[in-house]
Q: What sequence folds into this?
């Protein structure tokens, strides 16, 4: 498995990773693959540019430049879930922002000791590095497929979605076989850090939903329903060993923020930019905002983050 010691974000933006680059024969989808791509594209004819044309565009690029192009397109691609729920498109986060927020979430749960409490030494520095890679590439195929959601289930099955995403990743990462191996392994979720990555994916979605739901009048689905539909996914056998000691406490913290009306109002007031609000919520749920800082924030001061806050003494 490929291990990258420096953040993959830099590699994505540069468009190359020297340790992984290889010259390979051009990947060519079969005729059956093309018929499949055309079929899916026709089912989602409202998407512009079309899914078929996105595949054709990337196949026309030199394999060595595809990751660079994907990094650019990734930052522009909007997540579909909130848009389908009535949230204004201009406020919906990009898929790239979702991925970097997942990295931020992982770093902060590590710094606060949550990962060590839940998993001991099982998540070491190598596992953290591999998770960072996974979080930054796990949705990369959506630059070709677009972001399908459960609401699209009547038009595309989960098996079809997985097949389309796999074709997209084979094309994007054709010259980066090490990265593709990381992605292939992630799909099986046989390793703890891969399951943790999936749980962080869902936790970030809930933090994003809460940050957006704070603008209540612009969001037509209850936050409680979003949480309720997410928990069964987390309770599945493959994810339960991560959800129960780790994910459950984060969800409870998110629900605590949602139920605190004064805190939600302060978050709305202090962080009018939804992305800043998402990051503030991540700081709060991962224990990076102590008791005194929270009280000061509720009193109108800036939100301050730290891992250790000592009681303040009143000096006469």
A:
């Amino acid at each position: 498995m490929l291990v990258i010691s420096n953040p993959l974000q830099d590699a994505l933006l540069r468009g190359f990773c020297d340790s992984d680059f290889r010259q390979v024969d051009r990947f060519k989808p079969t005729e059956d693959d093309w018929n499949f791509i055309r079929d899916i594209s026709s089912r989602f004819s409202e998407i512009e540019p079309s899914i078929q044309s996105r595949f054709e565009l990337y196949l026309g690029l030199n394999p060595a430049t595809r990751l660079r192009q994907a990094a650019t397109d990734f930052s522009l691609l909007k997540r579909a879930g909130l848009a389908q729920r009535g949230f204004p498109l201009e406020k919906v986060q990009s898929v790239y922002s979702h991925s970097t927020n997942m990295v931020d979430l992982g770093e902060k749960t590590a710094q606060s000791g949550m990962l060590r409490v839940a998993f001991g030494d099982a998540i070491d520095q190598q596992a953290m590095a591999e998770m960072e890679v996974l979080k930054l590439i796990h949705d990369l195929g959506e630059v070709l497929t677009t972001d399908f959601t459960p609401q699209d289930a009547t038009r595309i099955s989960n098996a079809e979605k997985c097949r389309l995403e796999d074709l997209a990743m084979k094309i994007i990462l054709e010259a980066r076989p090490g990265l593709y191996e990381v992605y292939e392994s992630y799909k099986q979720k046989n390793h703890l850090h891969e399951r943790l990555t999936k749980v962080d994916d869902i936790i970030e979605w809930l933090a994003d939903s809460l940050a957006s739901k704070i603008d209540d009048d612009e969001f037509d689905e209850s936050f409680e329903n979003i949480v309720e539909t997410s928990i069964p996914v987390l309770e599945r056998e493959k994810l339960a060993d991560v959800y129960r000691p780790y994910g459950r406490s984060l969800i409870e913290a998110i629900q605590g923020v949602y139920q605190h009306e004064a805190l939600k109002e302060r978050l709305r007031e202090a962080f009018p930019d939804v992305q800043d609000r998402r990051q503030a919520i991540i700081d709060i749920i991962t224990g990076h905002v102590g008791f005194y800082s929270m009280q000061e924030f509720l009193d109108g001061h800036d939100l301050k983050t730290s891992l250790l806050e000592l009681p303040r003494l009143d000096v006469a």
